[in-house]
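Appendix B. One record, verbatim.
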Amino acid sequence: MNDIDYMRVQTPSGWHDLQQDSLDAWTFADIEVSTAQGHITLRARETGVLRIQIGWHMSFPEGTRFVGDSFERDYGDIEFTGFNPDRIYHWYWCARLDGGPVSCWGVAIRPHAWCAWTVAPSVVDLWIDVRNGDDPLVLHGRALDACTLVIHDYDCDEFEALRRHCAAMSQGSRPVPKRKVAGFNDWYFAYGRNCADLEYRAADFLASIWPTEGKTRPWIVIDDGWQTCHDESYNGGPWDKANASFGDMGEVASRLRHAGVEAGIWFRPLLTREEVDPEWILRGNPDGTKVLDISHPAVLRHVSEDIRRFTEWGFALIKHDFTTYDILGCWGSDMDLNYQATPLHFWNRSKTTAEIFNDFYAAIRKAAGDALLMGCNTVSHLSAGVFDLMRVGDDTSGHDFNRTRRTGVNSLAFRMPQNDLFYQCDADCVGITDAIPWELNRRWLKLLAASGTPLFISCNPDELDAGQRNDIKRAFELALREDSKAMPTDWAHSPYPEHWSTSHGPMDLEWYPTPRFFPAE
């Protein structure tokens, strides 16, 4: 591990240099940062701390290519580039040294601080945000294990290097279930206009095409639209019952199970119209809705009760969504080193924002029991080893394949090294409607099936023709094979790889057919 060259700390009075008192100890006033064995531990008595900056003097040869990760989901913006000192790499990054090894830098999963990297021509910086929302963290002598450095060079190709690096960052992680996950989600054709009858028809369709060998059952995931309070401008709680289009959700889950499928359900846990204790409210919105404060124990109990209710109804997969946006006020694509777009002051002022998120995720995990958990719009490095699946990219589309290529293909390629190490990487659905040529969706379907990652289709089963049904049947057969794996081979040159190496041979996929369709007003 490279020796640290400098360290600074940000307090309410500004940035200050820390002095290296020994090999592993850096100090300023009553603040001490220990770096023993790569563990970054912060101690302070009364001085509030906002951020720590750690720097290494480095030089990279001309031609070095860099790639890193995103804070939560990928928004189609992960790619290999040359030097860009303004680019922020959340959690980890790697550099292919021209003619040399792949140098990988990161922090172990589930740190207690937001961690991001910047790379300039002569220096690498790690930025460790230990704030409590907008406020400085006052430790009162408590030792904060902020993060653990994971820095290695690998003599192999970039994909294998990142794969090994993700394994190293996962040290001691809860193993990802080996159970294959595939099936149906209603969002990308219904877009909230779903109903119980639609789910039953989807279950019959899956039963008619599902591979008979093996013990894996298909999934039906009921997405946004089942809840009582739902319209074009609102998709939050309460979550205690369904609207008239679904009725008794326990009966819905039971009918799906009897039809031979496993039942999953979506919810947005932190947005509500309910009347709640004012202490529970992190932020009130102009429309009268509220965002709940996950630092409050009563909110954790409230969300846990919702999740336990879903499992009591019979749902064995729970997809929770929007929590990062609801708390921080911005999407990952807009994330910078400030992290939040709106004022953020938690009820609990004693922990870092990352610690508060970790506690929230742990409560969700505990409440779910044996049910599978899918995080959507969750913080990537904090989701690892906690949730069984994570939506690793922003939404694909049932209307515009350009979006599917941008978010789906990009996230599958560049987050594939995390698959089955951090969680199962869900690159999102194949949205099947008349708006997208089947040949394009067929390529996306084929790639997802060969990748060994979760495969969900989203379609009106009554509108499929015989060719589409047959393609979907073969895709599920491939997706359920234990040996299905894929890796991009041209990802160093394209953010949307077209050439893939799979367990079943090379796969070449044209994402830009001729003549190319490009949306224009």
